[in-house]
């Protein structure tokens, strides 16, 4: 686990295990929410969770009995998520105009947490800014745990 290669193998295994947990929970009528917010302040979460060396919280999962049946969020069209033989390099954000309209309608019409937002606003927000965010401390947090030490 001291190398990036082994760390990423373990991370991939953890993500696959989580997907299996989600499938099992949903097959029993339970609801799930994946929380990537652990990355918002990785060092603080290591402290809160009091994790030993060689461990790192990749994602969190909430599982419970749903008290509502939320609408399904529109998914990106296949043309933006599936590629053959090469990754397209000439992508223009304007190509997402139709999808943005669907996402805006979804947020506007859903039963809870209504907001006015679009996909392109979300992907061009704070995560892409050049100022330092606590999310940028992930590598330091991994090293603190003794993981991926070859990423210096």
Characterize the structure shown.
With 152 residues, the chain is mainly alpha-helical. The chain has one domain: NADH Oxidase (3-Layer(aba) Sandwich), CATH 3.40.109. The protein has helices at 4-27, 42-49, 78-81, 97-109, 119-123, 138-144; strands spanning 31-35, 60-64. A two-stranded antiparallel sheet has the order 1-2. The model has no long low-confidence stretch (mean pLDDT 88). Belongs to the flavin oxidoreductase frp family. One of its GO terms (molecular function) is oxidoreductase activity. Keywords: Flavoprotein, FMN, Oxidoreductase. Residues 5-64 form the Nitroreductase domain.
Quick structural summary:
Keywords: Flavoprotein, FMN, Oxidoreductase. It is built from 6 helices and 2 strands, in the order H-E-H-E-H-H-H-H. Helices cover about 40% and strands about 5% of the residues.
Low-pLDDT segments:
none
The CATH superfamily appears as NADH Oxidase
Basic shape: globular
Count of individual domains: 1
Strand content: 5-15%
Order of SSEs:
HEHEHHHH
Side by side, the strands of the main sheet go: 1-2
Family: Belongs to the flavin oxidoreductase frp family.
Protein name: Nitro flavin reductase
GO molecular function, one term: oxidoreductase activity
Keywords: Flavoprotein, FMN, Oxidoreductase
Characteristic terms for this protein:
152 residues; mainly alpha; oxidoreductase; single chain; two-stranded antiparallel ribbon; Nitroreductase-like; 40% helix; NADH Oxidase; Nitroreductase
